[in-house]
Amino acid sequence: MAEILKGKPVADAMKEELAKKVEALKARDIMPKLGIIRVGARPDDLFYEGGAKKTCEAIGMAYEVFEYPEDINQADFEKAVTGVGVNPSVHGILMFAPLPKHLDERKIRALIPVEKDVDCLTLGGAAKVFADDLTGFPPCTPTACMDMLHFYNIPIKGKRCVVLGRSLVVGKPVAMLLLREHGTVTLCHSRTENLNQVCREADILIAAVGRAKMVKADFVKAGQVVIDVGINEDPANPGKYCGDVDFAEVEPIVAKITPVPAGVGSVTTSVLCKQTIMACELLHP
Ligand code: NAP
Questions:
Q1: pLDDT level of residue 195 (50, 70, 90 thresholds)
Q2: Distance 229 CA to ligand 1 centre (A)
Q3: Torsion sign (Cα): 163, 167, 173, 174
Q4: How far is the CA of 189 from the centre of ligand 1 (A)?
Q5: Is pTM beyond 0.90 here?
Q6: Which end of the chain, N or C, is surrounded by fewer C-beta atoms within 10 Å?
Q7: Residue pair 202/224 in contact by the 8 Å Cβ criterion
Q8: Could you report the per-residue pLDDT of 156-190, keeping only the tens digit for each?
Q9: How far is residue 232's CA from residue 243's CA, in Å, rounded to a whole number?
Q10: What is the C-alpha to C-alpha distance for residues 219 and 101, in angstroms, rounded to an integer?
Q11: Residue of minimum CA distance from atom 5 in ligand 1
């Protein structure tokens, strides 16, 4: 039976640490603040926003939601995002994506100042992550994966790390973060041959494919650590979520595994606050 790596203890420890940092900033009359930009009211966005607000409240930092109608035009939205960008009270910006189709998302993302880009929405932010510039912020989920590995004392240096999925929001940045810590990284995708065999070679397997329960028993071996990033509707239980890993098949085989829900996903809003506080500290050394 595998050790279950839950997200809550990781998030709780992080929140305790962050509350102290917020206190220290407040003692210097600085209030760290997260700005949340949302167009429309998609249920998933509202759910994540609710979690982010709760985390901000728990650690004593501020937040402000900048909400815009679904039919906002490009010019008005550009003006709005520029305004949030230059707002001196906002230290970190989360903007929900994808934006409605009529908006030019690439152009809008570029309006977020890199120093406030705490979820890696800009090309400048991504460049910093890929160049190991520690003033840049990876997307929150890859950071959450790394925070899980650190909290549970899982060695990375010299280990075979296989990342399943090459998106700019999870796969590529988490590969870079593993590489930064001297993992030997293989990045897999939909064209990878002998995928299950490649995954079986891993010491650490990170699954970020967006396919419910795709990672089966033949993808894993004894001794592995499996981090499941997937959030998918469970085909067997409509209305419930499941990961990219078939937990029932994989858990009896491997050494450690994150559950879904209650795994990586429980850590991301704490990471969002952590990165916003870091942005604030960089501005006020
Ligand atoms: P994405 O943009 O759809 O990327 C999926 C990646 O998986 C792509 O690189 C794709 O390969 C690869 N892939 C798809 N099917 C495959 C297959 N059959 N075999 C091998 N590779 C395959 O997804 P994402 O945004 O990275 O998200 C991945 C998962 O993480 C989703 O379940 C998402 O909901 C979840 N997620 C969770 C959090 C969190 O906080 N826990 C945050 C973000 C995302 P190609 O590039 O070749 O197409």
A1: very high
A2: 9
A3: negative
A4: 9
A5: yes
A6: C
A7: yes
A8: 999 999 999 999 999 999 999 999 999 999 999 99
A9: 6
A10: 37
A11: 209
